[in-house]
Design a protein that fits this description.
This protein is mainly α. It has a domain of 216 residues: Hypothetical protein af1432 (Orthogonal Bundle). The protein has 16 helices and no strands. The chain is flat and about 80 Å long.
Length: 334
């Protein structure tokens, strides 16, 4: 047997009956010859890891727009934290860790520059609307690899598409959905404290008494609750879920809508809108790969795809180049 086949047999003997087994799964739109060494889900994880959109996540906002400091989360570090939390839960429940990791690594590939601020603008002005989780699927289907996409398996794409507010077709996909919530609430608290927007002692005592008074304790409480509940019905216990929901509501009130944390949001929204309408009016200025999308779909779709793929810095520099006049530089006389 090949290394891949040995791994598939090991899965049959070690994973629980509710797991998604590689040997029975992995259907792609374009059939491919199997890899000698990796299962289909391992290949998907590697394709995501090596794609351009994944690398760009390191320069995309998580919560704080273009923060000054090396330790604030970006969309990339968020993705890595989601992956680690999801893998821990998946491993403990004897589900398919490779599928879990692939979904987690790809779940935010379609996120816009400037975080949810950029997403809100595109949702408003693009006639197709905009949801970052559906854009992530577009990235792996139509944008990456010069428009050929990554040809990922159904199970990975389904988990990506359902990671926000829908039920995934696999247990592994649902775990990523919960891990995403656990990760962003707790690392956003960490960043808010670093930014001086929040103090640890601001979190209501009725929440910290249940979840814990530190980031590590809170994550441990949430993860343990899911694991201890078992694989048949993947969820948190009622008391833990209530505390988590209360913590999320606290964060929306004190951080996500805090004017000190979001004081640049109006500028970011204006910037995204100006870029959108500029390229809608001047599609010939789009890069070649997005010109191809105008032919396959239409201008709105191509412009939306282009802007959604930008990093914060790229969008700012492009806006400056297009709309901010340069100072006059006289030629030096001889």
């Amino acid at each position: 047997m090949s290394v891949r086949e040995q791994t598939e047999v090991l899965e049959l003997g070690s994973l629980c009956e509710d797991a998604c087994f590689s040997i029975y799964s992995g259907k792609r739109v374009r059939p491919e010859q199997k890899c000698e060494f990796r299962t289909d889900f391992q290949r998907d994880r590697d394709r995501i890891l090596h794609c351009n959109s994944f690398r760009r996540l390191k320069h995309k906002t998580q919560v704080f727009l273009v923060p000054v400091g090396d330790h604030y989360r970006t969309r990339l570090t968020h993705t890595l934290e989601v992956s680690q939390i999801a893998r821990t839960i998946s491993r403990a429940l004897r589900l398919n860790e490779d599928l879990t990791e692939a979904i987690a690594m790809g779940h935010d590939l379609g996120h816009t520059p400037f975080g949810h601020s950029g997403e809100a603008v595109l949702a408003e002005i693009c006639p197709y609307g905009f949801k970052h989780y559906l854009q992530s699927v577009r990235v792996v289907d139509y944008i990456e690899n010069d428009g050929r996409g990554l040809n990922l398996t159904y199970e990975v794409k389904n988990g990506i598409a359902c990671h926000t507010n829908q039920i995934a077709a696999t247990k592994e996909g649902y775990i990523v959905r919960l891990a995403d919530k656990i990760a962003y609430i707790n690392h956003d608290i960490d960043d808010a404290i670093r930014a001086g927007v929040l103090k640890e002692t601001d979190i209501p005592k009725e929440i910290t008494d249940i979840l814990g008074s530190t980031k590590s304790k809170r994550i441990t409480s949430l993860v343990a609750s899911i694991i201890n509940n078992g694989v048949k019905d993947i969820k948190m216990s009622d008391d833990i879920k209530k505390a988590h929901d209360d913590l999320r509501a606290f964060m929306f009130q004190n951080v996500y809508t805090n004017p000190n944390a979001k004081n640049e949001e109006a500028k970011a929204k204006m910037l995204v809108e100006k870029l959108y309408y500029y390229f809608l009016k001047n599609p010939d200025k789009l890069p070649d790969e997005y010109k191809a999308i105008t032919k396959k779909f239409d201008k709105d779709r191509a412009v939306c795809d282009y802007i959604a793929g930008m990093t914060d810095g790229y969008a700012i520099n492009l806006y400056t180049q297009l709309f901010v006049p340069k100072g006059f530089e006289p030629k030096q006389s001889v």
